[in-house]
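We modelled the chain as a single entity of 123 amino acids. Its sequence is:
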Amino acid sequence: QVQLVESGGGLVQPGDSLRLSCAPSGSTLAYYAIGWFRQAPGKERETLSCISNIDGTTYYADSVKGRFTISRENAKNTVYLQMSSLKPEDPAIYYCAAESPPCGLIAPRYAYWGRGTEVPVSS
């Protein structure tokens, strides 16, 4: 079992960049594939990306391909989601989750979820 903590959320405007982090509390991510998801108010949860813990293979949803980059830094036991060229539809609560390998874009496969970090719209 692993407890995940997301961080890095904040106010954004279109065109901004932001990096989110996902780290475990008292455990290691080494055994897990990690995915990033988001949910905006009134919308369904959306799968964004995942990264394998075995070979670093990554997958992206079409909505973020070319704008978001997932990476993992094993020395820091952290997975990142670098977001660039943010669009008006990107603000949401962003979640990371862990599953047994391999990495996949099917949310119900993920057993462990963080509480999310908010990326709100800048007023």
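As a brief sanity check on the tokenised model: The two ends are 39 Å apart (CA to CA). The chain is about 0% helix and 40% strand.
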